[in-house]
């Protein structure tokens, strides 16, 4: 009788242990999986993503959050990507998402964030194939000739084309002849100047910096601007720039030429 009672008590205790183990297993099953708020599938908690320290209540599977981020970058060109939950304005943390993204997607996201942060600066992309590096103008002055820090090639910052030495951006758009390109490089090397009106190329060997072009326009050889009453060259590439371009040197030379011509004409009259 006592033995039977002991057996019954053991069975009851064993049944209680089994029920407790079953309850613990059910609780573990509940915590080891969750419902993804995007695909609505029951997913293992090992593939759970939460936007840490921002919106812990919203959970997604890794596949859905990866597709969400990539779609925002590729299709919408968005830098600040928000939580995909409805009416949630929390922004996803790139550092939290880094472990679930491919290196290519993460780098692209970082580039978009840099671009959106530096909107105040002028920017251009290297036009050369297989490069397209983003370059920022951190100077206050305008920039034309630029060197790509990655491929080390030279390009025009304004029109984002390979560097067109000696030609404006508008001229470079329709320029296809290789000889024109080589001549432009020669102009840049020799520092030849072009008339601001007819674009005729001029080389100054010596003498005054004010050039009279064959089209009749007078311009400064130092800065390339038309010579007017208000012209004041400050480029300073040559020592005579300030005096000649400010109209101090040139009138004196013209006056001396007139005096010499008048003197020669006077002596010719005396001889006759």
From TrEMBL:
The keyword Zinc-finger applies. GO terms for molecular function: ubiquitin protein ligase activity; zinc ion binding. SUPFAM superfamilies: RING/U-box. Its cofactor is Zn(2+). The keyword Zinc applies. Its EC number is 2.3.2.31. This is RBR-type E3 ubiquitin transferase. The lineage of its organism: Eukaryota, Viridiplantae, Streptophyta, Embryophyta, Tracheophyta.
């Amino acid at each position: 009788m006592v033995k039977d009672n002991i057996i019954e008590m053991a069975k009851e205790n064993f049944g209680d242990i089994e029920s407790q183990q079953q309850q613990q297993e059910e609780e573990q099953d509940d915590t080891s999986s969750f419902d993804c708020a995007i695909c609505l599938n029951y997913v293992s908690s090992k593939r759970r993503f939460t936007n840490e320290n921002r919106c812990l209540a919203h959970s997604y599977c890794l596949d859905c959050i990866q597709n969400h981020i990539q779609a925002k970058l590729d299709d919408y060109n968005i830098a600040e990507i928000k939580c995909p939950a409805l009416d949630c304005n929390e922004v996803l943390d790139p550092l939290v998402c880094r472990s679930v993204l491919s290196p290519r997607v993460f780098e692209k996201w970082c580039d978009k964030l840099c671009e959106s942060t530096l909107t105040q600066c002028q920017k251009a992309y290297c036009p050369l194939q297989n490069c397209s590096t983003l370059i920022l103008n951190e100077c206050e002055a305008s920039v034309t000739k630029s060197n790509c820090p990655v491929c080390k090639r030279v390009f025009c910052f304004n029109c984002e084309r390979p560097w067109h030495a000696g030609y404006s951006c508008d001229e470079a758009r329709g320029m296809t002849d290789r000889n024109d390109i080589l001549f432009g490089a020669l102009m840049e090397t020799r520092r030849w100047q072009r008339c601001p009106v007819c674009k005729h190329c001029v080389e100054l060997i010596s003498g005054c910096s004010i050039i009279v072009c064959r089209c009749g326009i007078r311009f400064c050889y130092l800065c390339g601007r038309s010579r007017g009453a208000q012209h004041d060259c400050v480029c300073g590439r040559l020592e005579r720039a300030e005096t000649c371009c400010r109209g101090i040197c040139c009138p004196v030379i013209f006056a001396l030429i007139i005096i010499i011509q008048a003197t020669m004409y006077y002596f010719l009259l005396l001889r006759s």
